[in-house]
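User: Show me a protein chain along with its predicted structure.
Assistant: Here is one chain, sequence first, then structure tokens.
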Amino acid sequence: MIWLTWRQYRVQTLAALGVLAAFAIFLVVTGLQMRDLYDTTIGPCRDDCGAARNALVVEYQTLTYYVTSALLAAPGVIGVFWGAPLIARELETGTHRLVWNQSITRSHWLLIKLGAVGLVAVAVTGVLSLLVTWWADPIDGVNQDRFTALMFSGRAIVPLGYAAFAFTLGACAGLLIRRTVPAMAATLVAFVAVQILVPFAIRPHFVTPEHTDVALSSLVTAPGGGESGAPKDGWNGNHVQLKGAGDDTYLRVGVLKPGVWVVSDPGAVLDASGREVRGAAGCADRSKDPFECFATSDLHIEVDYQPADRYWTFQWVETGIFLGLSGLLAWFCARWLRRRTA
């Protein structure tokens, strides 16, 4: 049975290993170049390192985005092209009957398919994740943005959980739909939906966030990022947009440690009694400089945040959740296969 599974998936496996090898060479070459730039510009820096840090970010920020996106796409590709056809193709062509009429039981057949192919899928994703995490370490150290949705999902161990989940999700879709192409489409839609839901609706609640009141006069302040209103590069999510202080007014929470994740809604400006203030009272008077107003007022904001030292706790929790979901999906496949498939 293992030999049969290898023959069925040897093309996909060899193709994945080839892509992994090519990507690894690219990451090693560019990663060494990034480290050389870091060691020659930021390493010797002692006092004002802002220009050197910005140079590294400008040089590699776009490439980091594409490399991380490629890693995030890998579990989805595995679910669509490995998981969905795993059972659907057998049921669609009727070849499962030939296997089940031999000495192989349905449970044994499913175990070998899920175990053998799934382990290869998770191993390939794990190696890819290790490479990307090593490659991005210099720029991640500069940006201090490991908690942002894109970077958190594309680093360390969570991609292994995504790969296992996507693979078993595809297998279940194939078992239920019994047609390869519709199962692939359903797997893609479901996986993308989960990847959007988890970072914004579930991940912030893994651990109860810390809460603090921050005086506006104690914050590192800067205006918003121009026409788009986005924060300036390098703010790394450690900022809030203030209600009542103008649509393009952002404050970086400079009193918090680098790398924290601000999870609270856009901060309302409060007075000394804790009441929300807006308009001119909230420093939104267009005739005045809002940042000078902040410095001379007793206004403050309330901030909920996740400390930077919880990063690995969040990594393990999210990986465990997706591995648990993978186990439930595999159990469901086994139950459904025994009871419903003729």
